[in-house]
Design a protein that fits this description.
4-stranded mixed beta sheet; 4 strands
Amino acid sequence: MKIPRTRRIRSRSEFLCVRKEGESIRGKFLVLGFLADDSLDEPFKLGLITTKKIGGAVVRNRIRRRIRGIVHRTGERIRPGFRLVVIARYRAAEASSDQLEKEWKWMLHQSGLMKPRMATDGPT
């Protein structure tokens, strides 16, 4: 599951801009940095950071795949117009996908980036 090139943060300057000018929320496994950007054509842009402190290449790639999968499943619930930087902390290597997803949703909720749920037409 590849994130389209237009929706990825790739340059160092973009990462630094989000980290310096934006806000961040820290969790046990992840750190979420976010910055509002009205000029985005895409719903959001995402950058992932996994450092060598976490482990070898296999471990870092597994964490990135898990995070991309979580973003893929929950991406439609993210408010548009934001640049997001997700930094995996060293404990992320020990976390299950469910733990990472639970923390991701908590961070989105705490930051106000999650769209409110629409009321569905249920039985009356």
